[in-house]
Amino acid sequence: MSVDLRALWDFDDPAASEQRFRELAEGADEPLATYALTQVARALGLQESYGDGHALLDDLSPTDPEGRARVALERGRLLRSGGDPAGSRPQFEAAVVEARAAALEELEVDALHMVALVAEPGDRLAAHHAALTRARASKAPAARDWDASLLNNIGMEHADAGDHDAALSAFEQALAARRRIGDPARTRVAQWMVGWSLRHLGEVDRAREVQLALKAELESIGEHDPYVDEELALLDAPSGA
Predict the structure, then answer these.
(1) For a tag site, which of 92, 127, 168, 219 has the least CB within 10 Å?
(2) TPR repeats at which positions (predicted)?
């Protein structure tokens, strides 16, 4: 039985996702049942039920590399979200090793992306770039598609350091990646990041153009984003800042 676990996720509704993975685990043979339960643990973490997530993972004893990689990855996510980023890093690194040994490219890139998020501040940008390099070299399309998230993270690192020129370059690349992937909602977020970065660079007219285009697109599908309105208000303020 082959199941795309990503297709069962709705990160805006982790409780519903949890239920879907529990149902999958109940009806699946091993190792799929274990894989599904690791996603239950992830969904519990997103609901801040960290203890329940750890207890579930404690009961899993996978013997295959993918199972071990998934358990380590979700254990790390629980630790990080629960306030122990230092404790999470060895778990993410173990997931990288297991996934790499089994040529599970998407899982490896996911784990590398998590390593970068918990790296020491001075090492974080290099770690994001290492994950991006691995994603771009992957044969698996799902692994390559991690470039969009990784470029966004690189942009944020530059922005946090006050280098908005470098941030804009990364956000523009992330937008191009989102357009290639074809997820309209995430593409709009990437567009917003470009506009946000332009505002920080003082490119008020270009920034306003981006946000107005986003607002028009949202209105055309009957949606509204307060963050777009907030940016437009800032751009229309006397200082344009």
Answers:
(1) 219
(2) 148-181
